[in-house]
Known about the structure:
Largest sheet: 6 strands, mixed
Strand order of the largest sheet: 6-7-8-3-9-10
Bound molecules: adenosine-5'-triphosphate
Amino acid sequence: MTNLVEINNLHFAYGDRPILTGLTMQFPRNKVVAVMGGSGSGKTTILRLIGGLIAPNSGDVKLLGESIAPTNSETLYKQRRNMGMLFQHGALFTDLTVFENVAFPLREHTNLSEDLLRDLVLLKLNAVGLRNAAQLKPSEISGGMARRVALARAVALDPQLIMYDEPFAGLDPISMGVTANLIRNLNDALGSTSILVSHDVHESFGIADYVYFLSQGSIVAAGTPAEMLASQHPYVQQFVNARADGPVPFHYPGKSLAQDLGLGGGA
Ligand SMILES: Nc1ncnc2c1ncn2[C@@H]1O[C@H](COP(=O)(O)OP(=O)(O)OP(=O)(O)O)[C@@H](O)[C@H]1O
């Protein structure tokens, strides 16, 4: 099986508001795949569906050929064991040291001896350059370092799938580059598959094998970063060139301003 994750003709709505409409995507093994799209286009929703936090209305998400089972806690628990997630606001536990933050998933999911656990945690911290910060508390490290600790924690169990939601948000340019390289290197060292949700074209294109552009609930363009840079698709062009005007909507969908102000007029 070449795809670790497959999404087939998936529909999802929050209440009566459709978010994803006929979404089909593939995430091949050992690849870093970026998912890009305007604010509110449904990128985080895709990660939540893959993580089984929410269930599709129709269509399905498969991990290793098996449907993600949000309603079967035993199956979902096993599937989650194969996933590392770095969510947008995935903060560290502030009262635990850096070491204990990374040890947390190992303590939760395994019965490793203290010695083995210590070695594994130190290896993960070493991979993100923070072995010597193991005994510090989150309040004693920088934002970029905290992101790297969260990264070490996300890969503590050597997951086959690693999902990143806006991993570059709020980082200075150097930390951004460091984080991007880490995402690529961890993916290759672990032989895993990474899904990267990000607005940052430069960093994402620098490390991704493949890029999906999401708009209005489905994929509007996809290809390698080089293909996307050469694409004439107006949506891709607006994104890649960071233009304020274009098909990427600025307004949250709903009534027009004229309607809201009681001036009549169309949508
Ligand atoms: N729990 C929820 N209940 C209702 N609507 C929600 C919920 N979570 C998200 N939404 C809506 O679903 C849409 C898609 O949200 P999502 O977070 O997936 O977008 P996104 O592409 O990740 O956006 P951003 O880049 O701004 O983080 C948004 O319009 C949002 O308002």
